[in-house]
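Figure 6 in text form: structure in, sequence out.
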């Protein structure tokens, strides 16, 4: 797989902000077929940082209703990447 196809987007939430500050961890939505080794290689290549560890989880899509119509959000894969001490990824540098 190509590195830029493995990493879909960073997850920017209040919880991931706390993880970034306290534990030097960044969360990403990744391709469902990617494994930990491929995710680690992609992060190191794209952001030019050293990765300490990668934890992954399958997130099930929620069932949502609009009146009588029942739908389901898509399933996706989440990766929590722990960076080595001294490394950092800044998404909003000039903001």
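Output sequence:
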């Amino acid at each position: 797989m190509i590195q830029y196809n493995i990493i879909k987007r960073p997850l920017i939430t209040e919880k991931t902000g706390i993880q970034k500050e306290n534990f030097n961890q960044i969360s990403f939505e990744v391709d469902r077929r990617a494994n930990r080794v491929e995710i680690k290689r992609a992060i190191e290549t794209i952001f030019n940082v050293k990765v300490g560890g990668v934890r992954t989880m399958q997130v099930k899509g929620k069932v949502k209703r609009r009146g009588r119509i029942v739908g389901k959000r898509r399933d996706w894969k989440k990766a929590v990447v722990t960076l080595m001490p001294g490394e950092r990824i800044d998404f909003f540098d000039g903001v």
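Caption detail: The chain has one domain: 3-83.
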